[in-house]
Amino acid sequence: MSAAGPPEFSLPDFASLQRGSFRYFPVVPGRLEFAAAVRERILTDRPAVVAVELPATIQWEFYRAVARLPKITAIVYPDPIDEEKNIYVVVEPTDPFTEAIRTALDIGAQVHFIDPGTGDRPHLPDDYPDPVAISILGLDRYIDAYRLEPQRRNDEVTAFAQRIAWKLQGADPSRATLVVLSLNLLDPVLDAMETPQDDPPRRYAEGQATLVHPAADGLAEICVEHPFQQERYERWRLSPADAPLIHRGHTQWVLFKEAEASYRENTGDRLEAWHRRFLARYSRNLASVSGYLSPTLFELTVAARSIVDDNYAWEVWNTANRYAPQQDPAGLEVANLSAEEIWLNTRRVRIRRRLPRPKQRLRPANLKMRPKEKRPGEWAEQLNGDSICSYPPEDLVIEEYGRFLKRKAKGILGIERARVQPFTTSLLDGVDLRETIRNWHRGEIFVKEEERLAGDVGAVVVIFDDDPDHRYTYLTTWLGENQNESDMAFYSTHPFEHLVGPGIGRAEYGGFLMTLPARRLYDVWADSDYDFAESKAERLLMAALDYSIEKHVVYVAAKPPRSIFRSIAAQLNRQIVYIPIGQLNPLRLQRVRVVHILDSHARREQAKEFLW
Predict the structure, then answer these.
(1) 380-400 burial code (b ≥16 CB/10 A, e <16)
(2) Residues 50 and 112: beta-carbon distance below 8 Å
(3) In angstroms, how far is CA 496 from the centroid of its own chain?
(4) At what angle do helices 248-267 and 297-307 cross, to 10 degrees?
(5) DSSP 3-state assignment of 338?
């Protein structure tokens, strides 16, 4: 998801692929990097003929489909083996064969379809290196690397290459011809061109193909490149100087950003910096597992669902499926095509979108409704500013969450201190099943010894946002009202700028500190001992180390504290237990993050009428 510089489509020297008047240009079907490179090659060389590896039997339908671009069209014709089935060819802008025809027509070159349409096209697996590597290696090195270890050739591939060679051998040898064909067929075709080829044994009849207009809401399923990328590619064709439009990293960044805006509008929830960081990392790891350098739409959607929720995954998919030109069918029949009809192998991702439905919003007739202001500003007039206090039901929620974080920190420390060793004379603290199974081939049993934790867990610091933009302007320290309530220091949005009742403000934590026993905490934000801190989060952590009566201090944030805080903790005989915020339940975090502040204790009685 990096927004690094644009990819370089430096045109290689194809001297090794020049055969007389033929210059061969191998491509990976469907990928925009090759579509862009083909277009630049044709515009640079301006050949008299552009030969493309497409069936001659659907030549005229392909011309019609190219003429409809940027609308995406599907060519449909009967399967020659099973006439009850259809074959679909999706004509999309980022396919290099489509771009070759399109650019050739732009410069007035003749187009030659070199697949005679006789026999079956071999189903070759797309075992290509990720075309994203072109921006690193360059096109020539990418092609050379593939040719060193190509896909295995079989009789079916050889026969298909011979049919293409037969078609090329019938072309005019005096005219400069650019031959655009699949990378996995390059060497078989070059070998077949060394000897004269006989006429193919049979030919299928032409005129059976038709054009359909794929429905706009299913384009992401049937296209190689998702529609959001296709639309940016169309903009690049009109403005080639705007190279970031076809840079995958930049496109993914824009895709996530626009999906986030829709997510906020539709759900009211916001993504934090740690969401974006983990989205980039997780989608990159998913791509690596799938053998790619850059994630596809499938990996982006899975990452969005895993890191945020199903609603955000839906927004990512829906944004990627957006393609304005497809809204108008322009006289063609609209077809709802699915991935199973187009591709042999598909992957599924289930998204359960959770949005309020009208029936869920229906209430019994006698249910008391939330009070509203009789006139704008009525509640603001009732603020007295004498004191502030919390809402007790929310105190119970946040105290329980603090205890949960302490238990989690103890578990982490216990795992770190556990030792595993082969069984000799004692079972110690029990059999370690994981290590025993891992070493099953050795015939040994492993046991674990859990070292007793020295010291308990004291203060808890939770940082939702480091606040680099100074969004959280409300800095407060308040004391627990009884022995079971923690002292707290926190920074948040200003509560009384968002009133939900008379003297009742709603705020959102940026970060908070909790420490027991109660009624010990001095005003953290005015304490000069913590002026060394470079941020609000660091000030809270310094106070936690200072006030904690237990050895261990929990620190929850998107990133660990600076290394100097380890030294400070050691000097105070304290230890920081860091928990990445991404490991915690986001729904539970969202519930804890909201706080309501009352401008006096008297508001507590009436707060239940406005908060539930």
Answers:
(1) eeeeeeeebbbbeebbeebbe
(2) yes
(3) 37
(4) 40
(5) coil
Distance CA 372, CA 354 (A): 27
Task: Record the tokens describing residue 514, joined without a space.
Answer: 């909790």
Which segments of 56-183 are extended strands (E)? 73-78, 86-91, 110-115, 177-182
C-alpha span between 101 and 213 (Å, rounded)? 20
The C-alpha angle with vertex 520 and arms to 514 and 523, in degrees rounded to 5, equals 75
Phi, psi (deg, nearest 5) at residue 563: -60, -25
- Listed by start position, the domains of the chain span 15-220, 389-416+455-607, 418-450
Nearest-angstrom CA–CA distance, 605 and 503: 12
First to last CA, the chain: 40
Is residue 97 within 8 A of residue 180, CB to CB? The reply is yes
Residue 420's beta-bridge partner residues? Answer: 448
For 99-117, how does the pLDDT look when each residue is reduced to its tens digit (9 = 90+)?
A: 999 999 999 999 999 988 7
Counting beta carbons within 10 angstroms of the beta carbon of residue 44, is it exposed (0 to 12), middle (13 to 18) or buried (19 or more)? exposed
pLDDT tens, residue by residue, 270-287:
888 888 999 999 999 999
